[in-house]
């Protein structure tokens, strides 16, 4: 049960709860305003129609909030069941190893782009999955397909890789022509 509360009270879902409450409240207020407007001297059948539409929108927002939350909890339960008893343990975030101290006069590679090519730049670090309310939980990538498993799919992947390489080669040539024309 603790896993359910972990999902429901995550920063991502707290934002979704607030947005759903605001959307439903806004629709209810718009419906009340339209019903009041329909009863006034300037009201019309159009206001009555809007007065009926806004509660339908409120129900839609509430249903979608419930549906997305239910799907997230189902995904969480499936992940916990697949991981077994290890899923019940709290997650720990591994700390990166401390960098070795630099010797005096050592070249740090600053300005050479070596840190970016090596993939150690701080800008390349992936953000945590809870950073945005619009992202999904990370999912493990499937294992690559081999020729023995699906020869047709493997052949198709090789064809796509060849097309991508050809486009990259033509793109480089096109970029050189554009630079020469300038």
UniProtKB/TrEMBL annotation:
Protein name in the entry: DNA-binding transcriptional regulator of glucitol operon
Transmembrane regions listed in the UniProt entry: 13-33, 45-66
Organism phylogeny: Bacteria, Bacillati, Actinomycetota, Actinomycetes, Pseudonocardiales
Region of interest (Disordered), residue spans: 82-146
Composition-biased stretches (Low complexity): 82-92, 101-124
UniProt keywords, alphabetically: Membrane, Transmembrane, Transmembrane helix
């Amino acid at each position: 049960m603790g896993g359910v509360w972990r999902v429901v009270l995550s920063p991502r879902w707290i934002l979704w709860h607030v947005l759903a409450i605001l959307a439903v409240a806004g629709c209810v207020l718009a419906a009340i305003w339209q019903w009041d407007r329909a009863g006034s001297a300037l009201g019309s059948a159009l206001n009555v129609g809007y007065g009926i539409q806004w509660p339908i929108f409120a129900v839609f927002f509430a249903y979608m909030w419930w549906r997305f939350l239910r799907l997230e909890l189902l995904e969480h339960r499936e992940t916990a069941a697949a991981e077994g008893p290890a899923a019940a343990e709290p997650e720990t975030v591994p700390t990166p190893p401390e960098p070795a101290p630099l010797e005096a006069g050592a070249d740090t590679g600053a300005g050479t782009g070596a840190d970016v090519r090596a993939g150690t730049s701080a800008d390349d670090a992936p953000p945590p999955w809870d950073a945005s309310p619009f992202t999904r939980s990370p999912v493990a990538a499937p294992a690559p397909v081999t020729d023995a498993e699906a020869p047709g799919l493997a052949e198709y992947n090789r064809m796509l890789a060849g097309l991508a390489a050809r486009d990259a080669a033509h793109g480089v040539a096109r970029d050189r022509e554009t630079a020469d024309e300038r």
